[in-house]
Design goal:
six-stranded antiparallel sheet; alpha+beta; 281 residues; Serine Threonine Protein Phosphatase 5, Tetratricopeptide repeat; four-stranded antiparallel sheet; 35% helix; single chain; 10 strands
């Protein structure tokens, strides 16, 4: 190949690299986010349009597995456990496949989430939930495939699928009531040992009311079966700051023993230094 041919090929290649024309995607990607109760729901899918085509029964055959959209698998994510058609579904991300019919659709929530089209080999063991839902006919045609989260309530909602003149809704439930009741029980039970400990350390470190910090630390320690050496270290510092050197020394010795048992040299040194400073014998 001579130099002239190589030069011409280089020119053609440079034009092909520079001519990067961007055009709209025929089935653009879309993301839907919705809070249902205390659960975050996200749908990630692509949106084909009719473009003069008959969809259900033609473009999308009845009774055959459909990707429920276009391009990559349509995915839905829940950040808490949910229920779908009475079936418990763990928090996580799932793909949605459907078998459209004239009167009913079958809907499948599937554990495989990577891929396009439909799975080459369908595995029933990967179906975490299945629902059969009725078809609702709409008077107004919808050009572009759409997924919605409808009829949002504190304990659940519907995953809506809309295209052409068809609407189907897949109900799901969320554990909002359980989470709220747990939160109420926890709040009414009063502060935990960790709450008292955190408040005490903050008050001490920010030079606020040291007597209040001591009171809270005493409560935290009384609620803790086996205080850790690092917790005892903080208690000794608060006691010393509150003017109780005798109590600080007693607690620091316990912290020292725990640190030595744990092999934590830093806490061993800090406790020894404090004991020396406080005049321990």
């Amino acid at each position: 190949m001579n130099k002239v041919v190589l030069f011409l090929l280089a020119i053609v290649a440079s034009f092909s690299l520079e001519a990067q024309i961007e055009t709209p995607a025929p089935s653009p990607a879309s993301k839907l986010m919705q809070t249902v109760g205390l659960t975050e729901v996200m749908v990630d899918y692509s949106r084909p349009s009719m473009r003069g085509r008959a969809v259900f029964g033609e473009l999308v055959p009845y009774g055959k597995l459909w990707r429920t959209g276009a391009n990559a698998y349509t995915k839905i994510s829940f950040d808490t456990d949910v229920t779908i058609s009475g079936q418990e579904v763990k928090s996580g991300t799932y793909s949605i496949f459907t078998k459209p019919g004239e009167k009913n659709w079958e809907v499948f929530f599937y554990t495989d989430t990577q891929g396009g089209g439909t799975p080459r080999e369908w595995d029933d063991a990967k179906v975490v939930a299945k629902a059969t839902v009725p078809v609702y006919q709409m008077d107004m045609p919808v050009e572009t495939f759409t997924i919605t989260i409808d009829d949002v309530k504190s304990n659940g909602a519907n995953i809506g699928i809309i295209w052409e003149n068809v609407y189907v809704a897949i109900p799901f439930g969320v554990p909002a009531d359980k989470a709220v009741m747990s939160s109420i029980d926890k709040a009414l039970a009063g502060p935990t040992a960790g709450d008292y400990y955190t408040a005490a350390v903050y008050y001490s470190s920010e030079n606020k009311d040291i007597n209040k910090a001591k009171e809270w630390m005493d409560k935290a320690m009384s609620m803790t079966e086996k205080p850790a050496f690092w917790q005892l270290r903080q208690q000794s510092l608060i006691l010393a700051k509150a003017g109780d050197k005798k109590g600080a020394i007693e607690v620091a010795k316990k912290s020292l023993m725990g640190a030595e048992a744990a092999g934590n040299d830093d806490y061993v040194k800090m406790n020894k230094d404090s004991l020396k400073e406080w005049g321990a014998k």
